[in-house]
Design brief:
It contains seven helices and no strands. The chain is mainly α and 201 residues long. It has a single domain, classed as Up-down Bundle (Four Helix Bundle (Hemerythrin (Met), subunit A)).
Amino acid sequence: MAVAEMHTETPQQHLTVTGIDNRKLLMWIFLASECLFFGSLISTYLIFKGDSIVGPLPADILDIPLTSTSTFVLLMSSLTMVLAVFGAQHNRPGLMKAMILGTMVLGLTFLGFQVYEFRTFASEGLTLGTNQFGATFFVLTGIHGTHVGVGVLYLGSLLVASARRNGLGRETALHVDIAGLYWHFVDIVWIVIFTLVYLIP
């Protein structure tokens, strides 16, 4: 009996020597590499933002109230993601699906704010090729926005899979938890970007 139980449980756990599932460990490793990636982008922005000879410059164009609103939206998406993980871990598929959908909607709303901001900046003369500030700003925030978009697609794939007859299988909580790690990382990176780019002169 014990042998049979071990045979059925081992393939489902995929544990590493750390005691963490190897898929979750892989996500942690990926996010660590992303920290280095965003660290280099943020450093580049901070180095070159004051070297622009022609305007517009940060003080001329950044809209703090608008970006504060979009930041609040993204932070609320972290709350819905936590509730989605809670629903997955406590066998409440209705809550899980609703919160995944809510997280996707909030993520898309954040992207809508970013598109509006980019269009406004372009209409005021700030583009990728205007000056050093424009180049580093659009690359940094644009790549972050791309990560948010990837996160929305990731959550969408989970939502579609959960609607199938067998759902996400026996490891539903693990799949949603791994997606949550990615989503919270994206939110934390934005808090750093918002503080350094928008709030610090």
